[in-house]
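[09:14] KT: can someone run the structure on this one? pasting the chain below
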Amino acid sequence: MFLMKLDLFLIMPAQVNDEVKLHFTGFLENGEMFDTSEGKDPLKLKIGSEEIIPGFNKGLEGMEVGEERQIQIPPALAYGTYHDDLIWEVSRDSLEGAAKVGDVVAGKVDGEELTGKIIEIKSEDVLVDFNHPLAGQTLTFDVKLLEISGRNS
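[09:31] RB: done, structure tokens below
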């Protein structure tokens, strides 16, 4: 029998406040890919950050380095439900330049910055949809966790 000295460390799955690197591909309900990090630098994020949609944060918890997981996120834990009351009729005079369907517009209402997409042009007004482009969508992400760092031991 040989005695060896080994430096062992505990392998802990990802948890809130961990900084992680990962690759992901996001799909809409119809299977269409809407975003990916493949072919680019891995995404770096802090689990639990308010900058990340809640369902994605929750789906990363418990993952181990090298693990691949599919995370399905309902609208309530992604970009919210679609609200018809966020389609506003805006005077064409309030827009700078020539507007066309599909143009993205930005402005402030009561100090809050809003971004919307023109969905219809009428003679005097335009209809602008201020919902997030992914509102109302169930999103699916294929994720591979590459690294966990930033832990305070």
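[09:33] KT: thanks! The chain has two domains: 19-80+134-149, 84-129.
[09:34] RB: yep, looked fine to me
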